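Q: What residues go here?
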């Protein structure tokens, strides 16, 4: 088969980009029978980690799709036509969009597969879009992508159910390919490495801290995390605890939680809450290892990759119960109502106080994380591509 890939979100620093890079890298390492053609914009083409054996077709665009498809913008029609022409002119059997986020219309007899990672935009549009125009453009784009698709791919059973219900698709039209944790995430036995990473990001060595990794968009629900944390440190015995928020917040192209942005400029808030900005995977691995607990409080997640990365380091996860996180974490973590800061605070206190419980759940986390891999994601993706081509 000749398999075309929309690789324009290769440069995306968030979850879509991680999925694209890790799954496709594993796929090309696994599959030496089929040919892969990556369709890239000039920004994505500068990446040094694109697999060498992938044929590259570079299309000059007026704006990188990573920026143009953000919450307050939209793709230029001319750019989408240029991408569509390049793909449609190629001799392909299958074409794959790793995310509907960078979808563009294509035409031709080859099979079309589009990945829809979640239904966050459909369930919580007021938390995603700045205007009705942005929402309308997203709705039209997603509708067209689904209508053109021969198969939809998603990353969890939770997301599959949401997609089937919202878009009224038959069960057989939606396939599931789970995600994996990169090899760079795992237990660190050398405590000096962990302490060095902590110091580099504004924490004293051996500080007790709660960790969050991700964006600061409103649907991430960091307001409830901040409220639970404030309640926690007001209690006797917890004043030393810190909250560490990891993410490239300055360059985030998605909608920003304005209350949290305001809090970031409050000196009293900043005394207890550490905003690290962008962190390398080496430092992030150490921060996962040093955390007493990892929290993913989102209203909705398609998969929850940071939770899996934390588990791969043996760190216990607390996640909201309205997302895919319980499906990923299983019996290795604790869950709460994302609207209930008191419940989250109670879970935090339990895990901070009970070393035995935390260690027991940490061992379960390692075992659970080991059941996910990018190699399995690649195998499942290839099976979907092959079935679609037939």
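A:
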């Amino acid at each position: 088969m000749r398999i075309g890939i929309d690789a324009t979100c290769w440069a995306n620093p968030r979850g879509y980009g991680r999925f694209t890079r890790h799954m496709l890298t594993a796929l090309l390492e696994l599959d030496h029978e089929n040919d892969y053609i990556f369709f890239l914009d000039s920004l994505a083409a500068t990446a040094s980690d694109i697999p060498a054996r992938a044929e590259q077709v570079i299309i000059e665009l007026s704006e990188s799709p990573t920026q143009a498809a953000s919450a307050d913008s939209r793709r230029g029609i001319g750019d989408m036509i240029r991408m569509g022409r390049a793909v449609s002119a190629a001799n392909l059997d299958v074409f794959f969009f790793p995310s509907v986020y960078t979808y563009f219309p294509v035409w031709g007899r080859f099979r079309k597969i589009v990945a829809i990672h979640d239904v966050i935009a459909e369930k919580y549009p007021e938390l995603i879009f700045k205007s009705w125009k942005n929402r309308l453009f997203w709705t039209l784009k997603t509708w067209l992508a689904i209508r053109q698709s021969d198969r939809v791919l998603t990353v969890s059973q939770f997301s599959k159910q949401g997609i089937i219900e919202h878009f009224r698709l038959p069960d057989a039209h939606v396939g599931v390919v789970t995600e994996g944790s990169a090899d760079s995430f795992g237990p660190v036995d050398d405590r000096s490495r962990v302490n060095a990473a902590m110091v580099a990001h504004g924490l004293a060595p051996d500080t007790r801290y709660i960790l969050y990794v991700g964006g600061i968009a409103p649907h991430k629900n960091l307001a409830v995390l901040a409220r639970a944390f404030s309640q926690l440190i007001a209690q006797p015995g917890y004043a030393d605890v810190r909250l560490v928020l990891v993410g490239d917040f300055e360059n985030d192209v998605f909608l920003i939680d304005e209350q949290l942005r305001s809090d970031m400029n409050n000196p009293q808030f900043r005394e207890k809450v550490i905003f690290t900005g962008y962190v390398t995977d080496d430092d992030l691995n150490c921060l996962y290892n040093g955390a007493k607990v990892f929290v993913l409080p989102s209203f909705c997640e398609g998969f929850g990759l940071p939770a899996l990365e934390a588990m791969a380091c043996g760190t216990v996860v607390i996640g909201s119960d309205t997302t895919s996180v319980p499906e990923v974490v299983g019996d290795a973590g604790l869950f709460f109502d994302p609207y209930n800061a008191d419940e989250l605070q109670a879970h935090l206190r339990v895990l901070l106080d009970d070393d035995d419980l935390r260690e027991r759940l940490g061992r379960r986390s390692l075992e659970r994380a080991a059941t996910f891999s990018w190699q399995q994601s690649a195998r499942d993706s290839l099976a979907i591509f092959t079935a679609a081509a037939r």
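A: Context that may help when evaluating the design: The mean pLDDT is 90. The chain is about 45% helix and 15% strand.
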